[in-house]
Specification:
541 residues, mainly beta, Tachylectin-2, Chain A, 9-stranded antiparallel sheet, 42 strands, disordered N terminus, Xylan 1,4-beta-xylosidase, hydrolase activity, hydrolyzing O-glycosyl compounds
Length: 541
Amino acid sequence: MSTDTAATATAARSIRNPVLAGFHPDPSILRVGDDYYLATSTFEWYPGVLVHHSRDLVHWRTLGGIITDRRLLDLRGCGDSNGVWAPDLTYHDGEFHLVYSDVASFASGYWDPQNYLVTAPDIAGPWSDPVELHGRGFDAALFHDDDGTTWLLSMCADWRPGRDRFGGIEIQQYDRVARALVGRPRLLFTGTPVGMTEGPHLYRHDGWYWLITAEGGTSWEHQVTVARSRELFGPYEVDPDGPLLTSVGRPDLRLQKAGHGSLVRTPDGGWYLAHLTSRPYSPLGNCVLGRETAIQRVDWPSQGWPRIPGGVPAEEVAAPDLPAHPWPPEPATDHFDDPELGRCWSTLRRPASADWLDLRSRPSYLRIHGGQSPVGRQSPSLVARRVGATRCSLETVVEFDPVDHRQLAGITAYYNTLNWHHLYLSRADDGRVVLELLSSDNGRRTPYPELTVDADDVARVGLRATFDGPVVRFDYDLGAGWRQLPVDLDATILSDEHAALIIDGEPAAWGFTGAFLGLWVQDLGRDGAYADFDLATYREH
């Protein structure tokens, strides 16, 4: 390609949504110079707060997670879909600021959130020790005003029976030098009749303060609400023409649940909104891929309200007039040659640390020391990656010598502690090593004894899990080629909708994370069992 051709390959390109496929919700978008960053929620998974990087808003690469150790966050005992909610990434005075909420509960009207702030001179760190902020609500975010002051916003929770638990948006000054909140909090905005007002982001533009919030809950009624004021503390006037973005009432749209947005401005003065979205397998059906990130172009006339064409999420959006900047593709196969776990992987409730993950003792193998059972919330041993397409697979080769039925190692299609499918090696009562399949649907376990495969005297076993739309299938290779287990498993139980449970009007469980494919080792007797995985190949079909 000539230099002239490369320079003009800009405006004709399109942003294709979602830009981050699979479990990447609650995006906070930021531009620093020529670089764009997207930070997303991670809940009970490490590393916490995934960050992606782009230079054209079209092509994105993962930079991995910011919260990589327990110094910044301790997820031991974290419930399903608790943990890190709605991070906020800003840049001010040569420093990155990350605010994140660690939500401990959502039962009986309580949340027990704790908000933290860490800073770094570079997006790659090193990140400071966390500053403890308030616990009055979640979805905390910083706003750096033109006068040099910094303010913390969050939703304001109200636990009292009969009250609106979404009590509005609160603001309080943050002293960057003292690294502490100062002054008293003030209620900034109580929201619209849509309710469930959360996810605040504040901007200064055209002589106005612009407050962007999420309303309607994070499912089908989700929306992005815009309000403005001439003064920081309001009063805030809501856009009279309704939400900036929503999918409500449009089950025909491929992108649903549109909401929880944040704005970014390009160097030429254009505006874009990053927002949460989902792609159900059927109209208003289960979303196995979870909540994803999309980007919309925003028209913002001088002194006018921001507008997205039609107020609905588009699958294809005109890209900004920037040089195209694709990134090298991620290799399909991880041979585990590096001394650290690759950026595509996440670990459940504990960091990827040497006390249970080992990439050094046996070069080119990932050794996973067994952890707790599927319902254990302190030290599970699950290394997994997000499902990014309706048709995809994860394939591995494992070496494992179990002592008894308490030791299991294999491959899983996973959602949370209650919803998963697991194909694993273990040892039967008669002493044989066997390959077995077990499923859990909201905690109801289903074994498949008729599908048990004799794997005795086989040193290396190939395992593969495949998502084929609403179906999960498993294959195995004992050295004579791949064979498929003759059962179609329900993939839709690995979804946000299936995981959610409301009892007497109160949430007993939520589903916020989307499906994973992973390598899972259990040592229920704590006898020192481990498995060696030679490689892992992820493909989207």
